[in-house]
Amino acid sequence: MLAPLGYWAALQAANGRRRDGEPPLVRGFVPYVGVAVAFGKDATSFVQRCQAEHGDVFTLFVAGDRMTFVLDPLSAPAVLKAKALSFHPVSDGILARAFKLPNARDRLDLAEIETIGRTRLRGERLEELSSNMGRRLESLVPQAVSEAWQDAQLYEVIWDIMFRAGTEALFGGGTVTKELRADFEIFDRQFPLLVAGLPRPLLKAGNDALDRLGRAKLPGEGPSHWIRDRQPLIDALPPDERGHMRLPALWAIHANTIPSTFWTLYWLLRSPDGLAAVLAELEEHSREDGGPKVRDLNNLKMLDSVIREALRLSSGSLTVREALEDFALETEGGTYQLRKGDRVCLAPFITHRDPDVFEDPLEYKYDRFHAEGGRKQFYKNGHRVPLPLMPFGAGSSMCPGRFFAINEIKLFVTTVLTHWEIELGSDPEPPFEFGRAGLGIYPPAHDVGVRMRRLQPLG
Questions:
Q1: What is the greatest pairwise CA distance in the chain?
Q2: Which pLDDT tens digit goes with each residue over 230-261?
């Protein structure tokens, strides 16, 4: 009798209990761990099951954290505008756990660094950066294949080209080495576990790769304005930490953009109608030496829809805020009491799969987001959904590099389609690698084979 009572007491002591006015609490059956295993295995399915049982607002106990999910897309503005909720504790925790930068906000002007990102990654500076990326892709893509048919692995090919082109476009020439690439792969693979706060001795490979990346020669020759303008602020840190502060930018430009590029091209190759529509659009906007000009990228409306549909299907990101005090959150479905320290999460991947918002949500439709003028609108229960697609977050945590990321994908796809003939092999569609639950775009769990050869650019 004592054993069950002891277990029950330990569970309540570690995982807590629901108080009056709070959302339903899903605390799991393992003290402290809670539902972390089930959530990490397949966040989408697990959250959907909780929604079916508890409604649109509920709290999960995940490895010591209370995470309150608000799933009604019409309530998203209430979360984003709540003054008692802040993104800073979340981002500061990521810097401390994943990049070895504790108390960074106390030692750096992170607000100014964030402002530089928002201003340098749009407008004229974005066009300059995109042109640099385009030139590097125009050099790398034709070199990757010969005029004879050859077999290759699609994700591996995309990874190699995008990593080199993106790194050098931002950090300058001479920065990409075999060692940098290998260390980034190791660190990226263990990034979810580092963010989760697992003890560093258990993650020696990722921890060592992080230290080596911190000593890498970044920036190189001719870095972008974004990287150059951040450097004087980063120099406020001790010399042994400056390299670590450059790594969030390196991780951010690749960790989600590369898998997004894979899914965009993969699903496009599986859609003959979509591929024909994109090729017709490219021909309309092509120039004499092949491919669209950077300033024409905004005119590629069909390709934009193709990319957004791939993001909709493959995104597993969360938009997270932390409660700075006890307060009442008012949602469309009611008012809920939250505690100081609670994490409040918007789960866009639930909206992305909501049949009331997106018809046939599990089906790939290349033209789902296509609109010649303005942005296509989506509705739920007769009300316009303010943020139907959120792969880049929202509000203060919205990714400042989202415009560059979309341009990177457009540039890669347009360059490939004008320089390669490419065919998918017989491999089945890969499932998602769910280890990135909450962190962004799911990579494929395995690669897929393709046949490709080099073509002359479109004239």
A1: 82
A2: 999 999 999 989 999 999 999 999 999 999 99
